[in-house]
Design goal:
Blueprint (H helix, E strand, L loop, with lengths): L4 H6 L1 H21 L5 E4 L28 H21 L3 E6 L1 E3 L12 H15 L3 E4 L5 E2 L1 E3 H14 L6 E3 L7 E2 H12 L5 E4 L14 H6 L8 H14 L7
Helix pairs in contact: 2-3, 4-6, 4-8, 6-8
The structure holds guanosine-5'-diphosphate (GDP).
Length: about 250
């Protein structure tokens, strides 16, 4: 069960419950049916709220998560705890990957519950269609590393075939590719050719200021992997949303 900052704030207990139930059901079944390999998804938002940067794979359990998504974070941390336990007692080959903020075609473009990029793509689309101002939630100052869903899919298939540790691996663009919410929203505005008024609603939460993650471990395995440039990924996602507006989740 996933969602953006505002869905996490609204359904904190459900995030904790449902994700724990998914962990227990999926991993226990995989153990019983002798599944050879399981790759589960964590997220960089599950790391301690107070931490040093960049965050790396060894730091997941070092302190309480940010309070804005504690239910999701504790449930997801348990996936790693369970993988270690299933390996220790039953020899299971279960691992986790930790993507940063994901975006791309087929996302959930919900205005209220979506992650920042899909929500903003839909909001700009609506503002353009209705001739209304386009509103960004928060100050626009927080920093994020975005990964294109197509790149993430390729890296997850690599992890399934060739990554043989139980411990998690962060799947992230380089630290130098971190961008502010304001910068990323400007890319959405450009890709959508929106010329109307832009407003910041600072009564809305900024969430965590940053979650800068190190991809040093990934780079040790795949030093030459080339991520899709974010402007290109956003342009492709905006085009996909416009072409598939009727059937897109929103
Ligand atoms: P996070 O990275 O886990 O915090 O998740 P999000 O993808 O929800 O990103 C949240 C960041 O984007 C916060 O700084 C929000 O204030 C900012 N933001 C700006 N506009 C929006 C919006 O329309 N939806 C969401 N989810 N976040 C927004």
């Amino acid at each position: 069960m996933v969602g953006g900052l505002f869905r996490n704030l609204k359904y904190n207990c459900d995030f904790l419950q449902f994700n724990q139930l998914i962990n227990i059901n999926v991993l226990e079944s995989c153990k019983d049916f002798k599944v050879q390999k399981v790759v589960s998804c964590l997220s960089t938002c599950i790391f301690p709220g107070k931490t040093t940067y960049p965050i790396d794979e060894t730091m997941i359990h070092n302190g309480p998560p940010h309070q804005s998504n504690s239910g999701y974070s504790y449930a997801k941390r348990m996936t790693d705890v369970m993988n270690q336990a299933y390996h220790q007692q039953y020899g299971c080959n279960f691992t986790t990957v930790i993507p940063t903020n994901v975006y791309g075609p087929h996302d959930n473009f919900s205005l209220e519950d979506g992650n920042v990029l899909p929500a903003q793509i839909n909001k700009v689309y609506m503002a353009k269609k209705n001739g209304t101002p386009f509103t960004i939630w928060g100050t626009g100052k927080p920093l994020r590393q975005f990964i294109y869903s197509i790149d993430l899919a390729k890296l997850m298939i690599w992890a399934l075939r060739d990554y043989n540790e139980i411990s998690p691996i962060i799947l992230s663009v380089d630290e130098a590719d971190e961008v502010s919410i304001k910068e990323v929203v400007e890319m959405v505005i450009d890709a959508s050719e929106f010329k109307g008024e832009v407003v910041f609603d600072t009564s809305k939460s900024d969430g965590q200021f940053k979650k800068t993650a190190s991809n040093a471990k990934l780079r040790k395995y795949l030093p030459d992997y080339k991520f899709t440039p974010i402007q290109q990924g956003i342009k492709e996602t905006v085009n996909w949303f416009i072409e598939n507006y009727e059937s897109a989740r929103k």
